[in-house]
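re: ur question from yesterday

yeah so i grabbed the chain u mentioned. its 210 aa long if i counted rite. heres the sequnce exactly as i have it in my notes:
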Amino acid sequence: MLIVCVGTATEVGKTWVGAATLRSLRARGHSVAARKPAQSFDPADDHPLDATVLAAATGEATEAVCLPERTYPVAMAPPMAAAVLGRPVPSLQDLLDELRWPDPKPAVCWLETVGGPRSPLAADGDAVDLLLRLPPSRVVLVADAGLGVINAVGLSLAPLRERGYDPMVVLNRFDAHDDLHRRNADWLQARDVDALVSVAALVAAIEQDL
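ran it thru and got these structure tokens back, copy pasting raw so excuse formatting
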């Protein structure tokens, strides 16, 4: 089962949701693996790399999750970061050719993109373009649960649905005691958005497909 994780933007918690989901699935006896085709970061930020967080959840090496040559210490979209560093800027086909899963392939293969659906991932494409070349079994869209989420989810769903994908939307940092969070979830669910409010709900949905 190949799951592609996309965010509505940067800093919405894609990696946290992915790691928590994979950790839970692994604890429940399912084999898992994670890949991030490219990543960029601010070298002044002391937080662990996305690939490191995902690797800790799956039991893999960080270098297996994201190749060192696709890890860019510049806080820009990966193809821009590569250009700034004077490195070759990968194409989508380059990233796909480099994608290696364990053999035998795990029950759940989790692929995390960067930024939002239209954030550049390679010289010639973004997350939406990548989806068309895979294709995944499921798409997960991670969004913040607070103010602005309805607009962010709507804008992010549009290009995905145009291409035949109906993502499961995870409202990260959802607080059941927050009236706005509850109303946002209700609003989305009433409009045919598969809005989930916890990692546990996402894990349950994935297990139904396994």
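noticed a couple things. The first strand starts at residue 2 and ends at 7. also The chain has a mean pLDDT of 97.
anyway ttyl
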